[in-house]
What we know:
By secondary structure, this protein is mainly alpha-helical.
Amino acid sequence: MSISQSFQKRFHSIIEDSDYTRSELAKLIPLSQSTLSNALTYGIIPSTKTLVKIADFFDISINFLLGKTDVENFDKSSAPANFQSRFESLCLEKEVTHYKVANDCLFDKSNISRWITKGFLPELEILELLCDYFNVSIDYILGRSDYKD
Length: 149
């Protein structure tokens, strides 16, 4: 579980600028009340899947949502891909095996098996390692944008 004051402040700001109450947003996105409360009260960053839901709802980049950039504009992919296909294509581009990626990024290769065979998404910390490794943005590797940086 990651905690971020930048995320907490940004999420507060986004909600305040919206025309929705917190309970309306929880239903519309959808988010559990506890996830919403933990994010706003403690700055607990939700799962990658939930971050994508929030970013999609507000049509913003995940880096903007996390408070890592102040650039609000976000160019959605014309043909959204999924994480698994982006990960596979990045491995091919860089000519690396799954094992090498896991080894170089210092995480267990069983994670990759769960992503590829079961459709899971990596935790934010691993996602950020992968983005650094492949030199791409979070939104690109998740298939939300066609722009690598």
